[in-house]
Specification:
4 helices; 5 strands; single chain
């Protein structure tokens, strides 16, 4: 029987106009200490984002989200933050910000497979 593992997750949001506090969920990041797992998934619904803010720069947004993904994976080309240990990268990626790209509060849970949990959360909180 597979054991449950404590995991943490946050929803990644695009907040095109910070002063209005409107947002669209675009991704999910999941961290699980054991097994060592930190991964992010994202998608961009350009139609919804343009309806919220027609002036949004999709290329910049895509670039920033890919940087989040690379930092999660610990890729060297992502810079010094990507070189941090897994818990530090997760904390940095989910820190409170008042920028166009933000995360929700961090939530805990129990899972058997963090990869399946990431896919489930992504489907439930971003796609649906």
């Amino acid at each position: 029987m597979q054991e449950n593992h404590l995991f943490e997750y946050a929803v990644i949001r695009v907040v095109p106009r910070v002063e209005r506090e409107e947002f669209l969920n675009v991704g999910v990041i999941v961290y699980c200490r054991k097994p060592a797992f930190l991964q992010m998934m994202f998608t961009i619904d350009e139609v919804k984002l343009v309806s919220m803010y027609p002036k949004i720069n999709m290329e910049d947004l895509r670039c920033h989200l890919k940087a989040y993904e690379q930092i999660s994976a610990g890729k060297k080309e992502a810079g010094p933050i990507a070189a941090l240990d897994m818990p530090s990268r997760f904390r940095w990626l989910t820190a409170k910000r008042s920028t166009v790209l933000q995360s929700s509060a961090v939530h805990p849970g129990l899972c058997k497979d963090p990869s399946l949990t990431l896919k489930h959360l992504f489907q439930q909180l971003v796609i649906s």
